[in-house]
Protein 1
Amino acid sequence: MSLVLASRSASRRALLDGAGIQYDARPADIDEGVVKARELLRGKTPAEIALILAEEKALACAASADEFVIGADQVMEFDGELYDKPVSLEEAGDRLFEMAGKIHYLRSGLVLAKDGEIIWRHRGSASLTMRKTSRDAIASYLETVGERVLATVGAYELEGEGVRLFENIEGDYFTILGLPLMPLLAELRAREVLAW
């Protein structure tokens, strides 16, 4: 049996690479904005939407009968609203300033698919409290890290200098990076995809 990661996320690939997992990366071609809008209209929560996005990615990825497909997605929930990745550094700065001193949540959805069916689902969640900070400090942070933050839903890279923006974090580190690795590894061992 082989593994396919239905994602173009560099952090998800790095996590699997770091764990020594052999896989093929095949980004799924879905319109996340359309899926999010549709599911919000249906009254789905951000956590449910993360799982739905993971499912759609896994099912959209062409796979052979001997492949398990990993679908993963993450959304950010702040003040009860669902947020997408910022489109500009200005938007990122505004978002970081709005979140300063407050709690937001990262909701992750993770699935395994085989033969065109979802065979396993997992939801992960983390709460993150940003420290109070000034617009000048945020501008300095963004000047240092540049447009890389536009690839992250929260406009920060927690695995880098972005950690300095935080006061408290509750939740699994891998979930925060968008791939709840421990439950995934356990499921892959249970299905004998991994030997150990």
Note: The mean pLDDT is 94.
Protein 2
Amino acid sequence: MEGKAKTLPVHERFHSWQGEGVHLGRSAFFVRLFGCPVHCPWCDSAGTWHPDYVPKNVERFTADQLADEASKSGAKFAVITGGEPTIHDLSDLTTALKERGIGRHIETCGGFPIRGDFDWITLSPKWQKLPLMDNLPLASEFKLIVEDAESIGKWISTIGSSFSEGRPVWLHPEWSQHGNAEVLETITRCVKERGDPYRAGYQVHKLYRADLLDPNSRESAPLGGDESKGY
């Protein structure tokens, strides 16, 4: 007798476009998995872990169900995100996506082993859970969250030896600071002074509210679950 098919806890899954990084502007199917032990104080997906904003229902889907939805969307690739997606074994999901000819992208802090076959890895390191050394060479691109004027220098000191031309290092203002002139000027100075591989980044999809056009997406929780920081 065959065992019950494995399922993954899904916070939301929706068709939109990639709002960040090298694949900016491309049609993409997003699978945002539930659960994260990292708990960044400015997290823009706090509904995946914050006790005050966890939804009443967290649906579970098999790898085939998610891959079928991704295929029906018409998107050429799926982005597996979270929360922190690598706390889950993603091998079955990447296999199912590959069988359907769909690209397999992931965004991770890099702090846990990556289980699955991905053709694009965005590694966005977090101070609350530093990336594993074995994961740094796997990154296709890096995304640094710039919280203040010192953030970039601290990341360069910590993992900068992994930054090299050919693998972009995106500098994103932490969202509650996206209007902070000092943070934005720090990013601009870094790009002008250091050049490649550093690039100024932004969460462009938020300007369009693109994700919310899909009925399967959820309304955002406050950043880090703190209403004073906004959304």
Note: The CA atoms of residues 19 and 204 lie 5 Å apart.
